[in-house]
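DATA SHEET
Item: assembly model
Revision: 1
Owner: S.N.
Input lines:
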Amino acid sequence: MCFTQSFWQLTISGLALGSVYALIALGYTLVYGVLQLINFAHSEVFMLGGFGGLFLIRGLGISNPSGFTSVALVIGGMLAGAVFGGVTAFVLERVAYRPLRRRGAPKLAFLISAIGASYFLLNLAGKEFGRFNNPMPSLYTSGEVFSVFGAQVTTNNLVIGSAAVVMLIALDRIIAKTRLGMGIRSVAQDAEAASLMGVDINKVITRTFIIGGLLAGVAGFLFGIQFGVQYNMGFSAGTKAFTAAVLGGIGNVRGAVLGGLVLGVAENLGVACVSSAWRDVIAFMILVLVLMVRPTGLLGERLGRSA
Amino acid sequence: MTTAATSGAPATSTWQGLQRWSRRDEVRRAVSLVALMVTLAVITGPSGTQTAPYSGLRGSLFASHAIPFYVLAVVLALVALFGGRWTAAAVAPVRQLRERGRGVVIPRYVKLIALVLLAVLLLYYPTTLTPFWQTVLVDQMGIYVLLAVGLNVVVGFAGLLDLGYIAFFAIGAYTTAYFTDKLPVHPPFVLNPFFIFPIAVGAALLAGVILGGPTLRLRGDYLAIVTLGFGEIVRITAVNSDSLTNGPQGAFGIPHFAAFGYKWTLDSLPYYYLLLGVVAAIVFFFSRLNNSRVGRAWAAIREDEVAAAATGIPTLKFKLMAFAIGASTSGFAGVIYASKVGFINPDNFPLLLSILVLTMVIFGGMGSIPGVILGAAVLGWLPNYLRDYVPAQDRFIYFGALLIVMMIFRPQGLLPSKRRSRELRLSELGVGGADAMGTIPGTDA
C-alpha cells in the first residue's frame, strides 16, 4: 500500500485534524437535531472563531512564550475563539433564522438565507481582514513530545487533541445531564410536544446555536494554530465537518465525533495515496458514497437521545 | 423571576419593564434599523489591509465615512419608535393601490401589444448599444438568463436545491473544448461548436442522471450538500487532470459557431440573437411543460411529497426529470459560453457561480419564468453598472445580504408566480411545505 511507510504518522495527524472536524461537526449535528436543517453558515462561525483567537494573540503580542505563558495563551485563544464563534452563531440565528421561523417559511428559504449569511460573512471577513493567510504567532515551540509506533506526536497534535477531547466530554455530559441538554433533546424529539410541556423552543434553539458556535470557534482557533487563519478557510473545513456529521449519523453527538476522526484519518491516508491536490475530492467522495450506501450514517440517526 | 414579579420589587420591575419594552415591535424595528445602518457603514467602508487588519473597521465605524449612516440610523430609529402613525399614513395609499390592483384582469389584447413591443425592443435596442454593453448583454446577461431559466426548473418547479449547477455548465464547456480538439486528449472527430450542442446536452444530462439517481432518494437538504460536493469535484478534477483538461490553463482558441453558411465572429450581436432565439424556444417549451401533467406533478411534489407519492405520482422519476432538464440546459449554455468566449479554465466554474445563478432565480421569483429572466438580467447587469463604485470582490457581500433580505421580506421574488406565492402564504399558516425539502418542526410555534 502507498501509506505503509508512514501509516502511524498519517493516522496521528489525521486524528488531530479529525478532532477539529468533530468539533465543527457537533455544531451541524446539534442544529440539525433541533431544526432538521443544515446550517450552511456554520463554516463562517468557525472562520470567525479563528479570527477571534488570532486577534487576541496578536493583540497581546507576546513573542516566544514558554511554560505557563504558553498554556495561558492557548487557553486565552480558545476562549476568544469561543466568544467570537458564540456571538456569531447567536447573531446568525437572530438575523437569518428567527425571522423566517416566525413566518413559518419553507425549508428552502432557510437554506437560502443561510447560504446568503455564509457569503455575506465570508466576503465581509475577506474585505475587513484581508484575503490572504494570517499565520498564528507561535504560541509554543512545537516539537516531538513522544512517539507511538515510531511516529512522532507533536505538541500541536497534543494540544488540538486534548482540547477537543475535553470539550467533547463536556458537551456529552451537558446533553445527557443538564436541564438545557434535556431541553435540546426534547425539542429534537418533538418540538411541538416540547413546547406544550413548557419548553421555551426559541430559547433552546438560540442556546443550541450558541453551543455549536462556541465549539466551532474553538475549532477555528485550533485549526489556525496549525494552518493559519484565512477568510475562506471555512468552506472546505465546513463541508468536511458536515460530511463527518453525516458519516457518523446526523443528530448523533457521538456519531459526529466518530465521523470526524474517521474522516480526518481517511483523508490523510487518501492524500498519501494520490496527492494533496485531491484532498477535498476524497472527502466529497466519502460523503457521496456514505449517503448512497448508508444514509443514516455509521452510528445511525439519533435525534433527541442522550449519547 | 416569577417570585420577584409577584412581590413587585421596584428594581426588578424596572428591569422587567425594560425587558418588556425591548420586546415591543417598534423597539425591535428600531434596533434592527440601527444595526442595519451600522452594517451598511461597514460594508461600504474601506477594506482592511495586510499590515493593518483593523483599519477597515476603524475607517468605516470611527471616521467621517460613518457619519451619514449614524445620522440615518438615529432618524430611522426615531421614526420607527414614535412615527408609527405617520408611516402608516404614508404607506396607506400604496396599500390601497395594491388592494385595488388585486383581481384586476388585464385584457388579452393589452398583453399581446406589450409582448410585441417587448419583442421589438429586444430585437432593436441592442444594436444601439456600445460594444462593451453588447458583450455584457451576451456574456453576463444572456448566458445567465439561460442558466437561470434552467435552474428554475429544478428549484422553482420541482422545489429541489441544486448547488452544483455550474458543474453541468462546465461539462458542456469542456465537451465543446474536447470536440473542437483544444484539449490534450484528442476526439474521434472534430466538429464545429454549433453541432456539439446535442453531444454536450447529452453529456450534461447523463451526468445529471448519474448524480441525481441515487441522491434524489435522500432528504432534500442532503441533495444540496451532495450537489455542492459534486460541483467542487468537477472543478477540482478539471484543475488537477493536466493530461485530460490541461489543468489550470484550460482550453484556448475554441472556434466560433459556424452553421448553414453563416459564421459567428468576435462580434457579440449575432450571439445575442442566437441566445434570444434559444431562450425564447426554451421558455416556450418549459412553460408548456409546467402547465402540463409533468408540471402538475412537480407542483404536487413540492407542495407535499408524501401526499404526491400516495396519489400515485412516481416522485423519484419526476424529480430526476427536473434535475436532468436543469442539467442539460446548463450544458447547453456551456457550449454557447465556450464558443463565445473562446477560452475556458476551471476558474470559470467556481461554486460562487452556482450560488449566483441561484440568487438570480430567487431574486426574480422561483417558479415564475418572466421573474427568473428579469432576476438574471438585473443581477447580471447590476455589477457591470456598479463596476466603478463597488470593488468586484465585495459584490458577494451584497449578494449574500440580498439573499437574506429576500428570504425575510419577499421570499416569492420580484415577479412571483401565482401558485408559488400562494404556497408560501399557505406555508406561513402551517399548511404544506412549499418545496420538496420537508417542513421545519416548530416553525409556527
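QC remark: Residues 274 and 336 of chain B are 9 Å apart (CA to CA).
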